[in-house]
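Homework help board

Subject: predicted structure for assignment chain

Our instructor gave us this sequence and asked us to write out the predicted structure in token form, then describe one feature. I got the tokens but I'm not sure how to describe them. Can anyone check?
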Amino acid sequence: MNIAPGATIGALQATLPLDPLENRILLQEALGLSRVALITQSERALTSDEAGRLAALVQRRIEGEPIAYIVGQREFFGLNFKVSPAVLIPRPDTELIVELAIERLAPQGRLLDMGTGSGAIAVSVAHTRADAQVTALDVSEAALEVARANALANGANVRFLQSDWFAALADEQFEIVASNPPYIAAGDEHLSQGDLRFEPIGALTDHADGLSALSIIINGARRHLVEGGWLLLEHGYDQAAQVRASLAAAGYAEVQSWRDLAGIERVSGARLVRVG
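My token output:
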């Protein structure tokens, strides 16, 4: 991708080979300007260095790299999250599980976020509910480094633990266990398409049928939920019925699913009710 020095900001916004929103984001990144400044300085011509920086960013996007990785951040639940190839890019679909968790979390309640990645769920809950005691786990130290930075940047009080699922928890219990685990089946064609090509494979797929991580959480959470506590799980667009069946088979009560803004059953959950 070549961009000639001397081209104006306004002209580039109209002629760069991406959609208008991506053109604007990359112009802001390359030039260090706000959205308002792009408008007020639309007649300003780019220097040779600026043209080179912009060309490099545009080329990365043309080659398929996600915008969030190029600029190093993504907005989620009204907050700004740092992202890197060590973590999944937070998506609007996941805001549903945050909303459900906040609605169900009692005052001073304890929430566990399993496989936290960028910290999107844990940080969003802790930022909204300063009274909550939020713990977040991930097996990846690189992911935890990103999540810690996001908690600090957003003023969220979260305890982070490196853990292979429940291994580091001993006998701790929580009012809510929430997770957006790897749920794409191995070999799914979507893993080789779009942004997913660049995201950490271990955070996308369980390298099996897409249900194994969900099953580990469903069975393991019984030990770590208080009586009446909620387990909330994000899953694939076609997995709701299977997840509900697994929850029911494991003895949970009030098993149900919730739809995202697109009308897809995106989160399933249930309460723990011990018999006897």
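Reply (TA_rk): Your tokens look well-formed. For the description, you could write something like this. Residues 9-63 form one domain. That's the kind of observation they're looking for.
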